[in-house]
Structures are given as C-alpha cells and as structure tokens.
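Can't paste images in this forum, so I'm doing it all in text. The chain is below; anyone willing to post the predicted structure tokens underneath?
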Amino acid sequence: MANRTVKEAPTIKGTNPQYLIEKIIRSRVYDSRYWKEDCFALTAELVVDKAVELKYIGGVCGGNIRPTPFLCLVLKMLQICPEKDIIVEFIKNEEFKYVRALGAFYMRLVGTSVEIYKYLEPLYNDYRKMKYLNHEDKYELLHMDEFIDLLLREERVLDVQLPRLQKRNVLEENNQLEPRQSVLDEDIDDNETSEESDDEDEKKAKKKETIPEKSKKKWKDLDKPERSPSPRYARSLSPREKSSKKRRRSRSRSKSKSRSPARDSRKKHSSRHEHRDRKDRDRNRDRERDRDKEKRRRD
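Text version of the structure:
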C-alpha cells in the first residue's frame, strides 16, 4: 500500500519510523488532499523539489484538524527514510529556509542526541523570518533560531511528540560533545582583546612622555675634542661691559633725582597753605586770650 514504510528502512528508536507521529495525526495526513496528490510515489530526490515549494511551517490547523504540507512531507520522509547525507544537505542549505527547517525537524525525530546537538546548534546563528500557521489557521512570525530552540528544549513541537533528548551537560561529562561556543562569546573576547591592546598602547605612550630628558641617551661625536670643565667662579667682565654698567647706574640715579616741575609746584603750593593755616590758628588763640583778660578785669 501507499502508506507503508519501505522495506529497506531501519527501525528508529526501536519502532517503525512512521510511528514517531501519533496515529490520530497520521490518519489525518493520510486522508489529506496534499498527501494523496503531491506526496504519492515521492522519492528522496523528488522530496527536495516539494520542500523548495514550501511557503510556511505548521502542524495541524483549522476546525477540521487539517495537516499542513510541512507535516505531510515530514511523514513522507519517515516513510521513505532518505540517507543521512541528504538530511545534512537539507540542514546546510542556506538558500531555502523552509528546506532547512524540514531537515532540522526530521533530524530531531530520527537522529541521536549527539547528532542533534552537532547539526542543530549551529543554526542558532540563522535569524531569518518564517511564517508559522497556528491552530486557529492564522499566520504568525517565527525566526529560525527560535524554531531551533523549540526543537532542543520543548517536548512537543508542531503537534508532534518529540523523542527524549539527552542533556548536553551529560554528554560533555562523557566526552561525547565539546563545550558549546557561542558567536556572542567570540565577539566579546575579540572586543576585550582589542580593548586590552588599546590600553597597552596608551600606557606605552604615557611612559614615553614621562621619560625625563636626562635619562635619554646622548650620542657623542667622537671626532670632536672634549670641552674643558667650566670654572667654579664667573668670568671677569671686559672694560666695555664695565663702562656700560656704570652708564646704566648713573642714568638710573639721575632719573631718581630729577623730578617733574608739576610735582614741585604742587609741593610748594601745599606748603604755603599749611603756613597760612598756622598763622590763622595763632591769631585766633591770641584773640581768645585777650577776651579772657578783659573779662577778668571787668569782674
């Protein structure tokens, strides 16, 4: 029959590969129009053409629980069991995002825990947008990295119960996986190294600025004879220099002695006023004394 698994298909998780999807959903897929018309007699090579034509992802939708073409192709791949190399090429395909999503979902159902972490974790760096058809038959926006995170963390995705996935730390302890290195951690390390190099350059520049001139090497010209040491006392002045110094002193003295005529006139004027004031004071005193004497005589 058209719904049987191929004879060459190996058992996955100890059971028929198609049984990884629940019986109710499988029966809905078998009764769907897309399965009967587009998935009939598909081979591994023809599945690629159908995957390229996908426009959205989803499980079952609508009131009558209608399966999406994405889910129908997943069941078809479980039926024909394509080779592992084909699935890896699906995952590595960067041109068609829905082909990559189909390969990642199939790898999550069929692959071992080590294979799932190995092939799906690099897809965290894919941030492309995808259309997701929900149960209410409405489209939502979903990014590729979000879809991969759901496959690695959730137990049920797109109405399919996913097989149990071994924890990553257990695989790391058993040396089956290397610690995961995020792209963000690499960017942070690059930024830290660049900042450290900048700090070192600044420190070197500051050290160069603070080096005293005495500590710098002075290159000597060996062809020139060495100078004799300078004397302890200052050298004696020449007669010309002595005469010039005397002239400067005499000029400064003459300037200090010479006074402006305005200044002299001001001083003379002030001295006259002081002399007059003294005379007036003496006269007033004499008058007061004469008055006192006359009063005494009368008394």
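The beta strands are 57-58, 60-61, 66-67, 129-133, 139-143, 156-157, 160-161. The two ends are 169 Å apart (CA to CA).
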